[in-house]
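User: Hi! I'm working on a homework problem where we have to compare a predicted structure to a textbook description. Could you give me the structure for the chain below?
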Amino acid sequence: MGRGTMGLTRGQLRRMPATEAVLLTVVATLLGTVIGIGFAWAGCETIVKRALRDATMHIPWSSLGAVVLLRICGTPRRCPQEPLPHS
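Assistant: Happy to help. Predicted structure tokens:
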């Protein structure tokens, strides 16, 4: 088997975009969740608590965990099998 572009075999070259998509999805989901919770806390502290003194912030951990899990598990694991162009 000959090596293709960048020293990769055809199979490795086909798997690279799928692997990249999985990694990007995991990082974006976790980072977005953390940043979203941070903005929600800041908004609750600065706006909501000024209007409603007894307000508390509640994070629905089970729902949030389900959304994160579904997002990560719903990521495509395989690239469609398209032939590579010949150079």
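For your comparison, note the following. The radius of gyration is 21 Å. The chain is about 65% helix and 0% strand. Good luck with the assignment!
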